[in-house]
């Protein structure tokens, strides 16, 4: 079991989003000292209107907190969470028709954040990601998600097989992706389901064989041009929005 993670997000747009949607989780917002940026001043004013704690600090400190120099002069510290603590059965009991996304071995933080952003936008209730051999939920992931990590449950585990079996035992349909699958994503409309879980894997290796073997249905996304595959975040968006059409 992992230790609780202090989550830092950075960037003007991402922090503005979290102030709007989930300000109760904000511990403190750090701003660049003596900034002349109009957008930073507006964000600082917004934070004060919500009675949030703010602190002015150096560029070096902002870079240290955010793990990047691309913080735009602002970093937000959120309450600690523990991604390994989650009562899946209680979640299932509370959601009669859950919409779940499982991400298997997504190593690029930008792709992971983009998938989370799409899942939030389409109305997913829960994201489950593989813990090992995957990008951690980092400031870069928060940035790429554009606030998508807020307002959605995110859980990480290495026992994805056990989780999927539990979902199936609770009558949740499991849809996987495989470029060799005979059915393509447009065939989703032929299947009846209430609760549903979509599994997406990294574009270079896909989802693991063991996960494929326990999926109820596998779907491909046809490629008509010369490229070998789609970016995982693009493929994820196609699958999630197609599933959402029939919920």
Number of strands: 10
Give the assembly state of these chains: single chain
How do the SSEs run, as a string of H and E?
EHEHEHEHEHEHEHEEHEH
| Shape estimate | elongated
User: What do the pLDDT scores average to?
Assistant: 90
**Could you give the distance between the termini?**
34 Å
CATH superfamily of the largest domain, by name, is SPOUT methyltransferase, trefoil knot domain
Low-confidence stretches: 1-5
CATH class of the largest domain: Alpha Beta
- Secondary-structure-based class equals alpha/beta
Most strands sheet: 6 strands, parallel
Can you put this structure into words, describing what you see?
- Helices cover 36% and strands 20% of the residues.
- By secondary structure, it is of the alpha/beta class.
- It has two domains: 8-78, 2-Layer Sandwich (60s Ribosomal Protein L30, Chain: A), CATH 3.30.1330; 88-245, Alpha/beta knot.
- The protein has a six-stranded parallel sheet, with helices on both faces. Strands 1-4-2-3 form a four-stranded mixed sheet, sandwiched between helices.
- The longest helix is centred in the middle third of the chain and has 14 residues, at 109-122.
- Mean pLDDT is 90; it is low at 1-5.
Note the topology.
Elements: E1 8-10, H1 12-22, E2 26-32, H2 38-49, E3 54-57, H3 59-66, E4 74-78, H4 88-94, E5 99-104, H5 109-122, E6 126-130, H6 139-145, E7 153-157, H7 160-169, E8 173-177, E9 196-201, H8 209-214, E10 217-219, H9 232-245
Parallel strand pairs: 2-3, 5-6, 5-9, 6-7, 8-9, 8-10
Antiparallel strand pairs: 1-4, 2-4
